[in-house]
Design goal:
With 158 residues, this protein is α+β, with helices and mostly antiparallel strands. 17% of the residues lie in helices and 63% in strands. Strands 1, 2, 3, 4 and 5 form a five-stranded antiparallel beta sheet that branches. A hairpin with a 2-residue loop joins β1 and β2. It is globular, with a radius of gyration of 16 Å. The N and C termini lie far apart (51 Å). The relative contact order is 0.23.
């Protein structure tokens, strides 16, 4: 193995360890709300995002939320830490603790993990905003990405 390849392996290992350590220090909504899976969701979301990451990460996109039979368009953007690569993300999921659509927009903390190699991907995201609204998303990625870390996502209604 060449010196250059070994150097990249060491860098990736160190950064992954750092991201995991930082992720363990933050409140993870998933740990607090694992019982949510037995509940009926208050709403459903579909999101399409483009992400770029090299230690720091950034992304943005649009989507929809369906709440009480009505569909609303969304837009969002975010910055964070953790990951390497470029990918597009299609995510679908459930929304809990949403009793008024006006409580949905806001800043969401996001814990994320996943990977993409071409169109083979896996991933999951848990998000919670300042109003206590929780989203559980399953993500399908396309591109080349290793994603592990956390960030803030600002969601607004179009």
């Amino acid at each position: 193995m060449s010196m250059r390849v070994r150097k990249w392996f060491v860098i990736v290992a160190l950064l992954t360890t750092t991201a995991v350590s930082l992720g363990g220090c933050a409140d993870d909504p998933k740990e607090k709300h694992t019982g949510q899976s037995g509940r009926i969701p208050d709403a459903y979301v579909k999101l399409r995002e483009f992400q770029v990451a090299f230690v720091g990460s950034g992304g943005g996109g649009n989507g929809t939320i369906t709440f009480r039979g009505k569909t609303y368009p969304l837009k969002f953007g975010g910055l964070g830490i953790g990951g390497f690569g470029v990918s597009s993300v299609d995510a679908t999921g459930e929304v809990f603790n949403l009793h008024d659509i006006r409580k949905f927009p806001g800043t969401y903390g996001r814990a994320r993990y996943g990977f993409a190699v071409g169109t083979a991907s896996s991933g999951e995201m848990w998000l919670q905003n300042e109003a206590g609204v929780i989203m559980h998303l399953r993500a399908k990625r396309a591109g080349l990405m290793l994603s592990m870390g956390g960030d803030a996502l600002v969601i607004s209604m179009k």
